[in-house]
Amino acid sequence: MQTNAGIPSNMCETWIIPLFPPPYSPHLNIAETPWRIIKGKWTRPTDFCSTETLLYAADRALADVGSELKISYAYMA
User: Fold this and answer.
1) Which residues have a Cβ under 8 Å from the Cβ of 48 and sit 6 or more positions away?
2) CB neighbours of 37 closer than 8 A, spacing ≥ 6?
3) Closest CA to 38 of 67, 76, 70
4) pLDDT tens, 38-76?
5) CB burial class (10 A; 0-12, 13-18, 19+) of residue 61?
6) Structure pTM?
């Protein structure tokens, strides 16, 4: 049996409420954590002077992940 709005009557009784994530939610995207750490902890302000130094610093940090640099996913801000 359907209601006037086209919703089955048994669904109306269960109170299903859809929850949508916000348009930008970095805490839900696991790839945001390494980039946040690379930008905040593993690069220096001088690395942002030019494109070449920034690419070198990012490449250096990504190459060291797992061997020298560790990322903990226990706390994601």
Assistant:
1) 54
2) 71
3) 70
4) 888 888 999 999 999 999 998 988 888 878 777 777 755
5) buried
6) 0.51
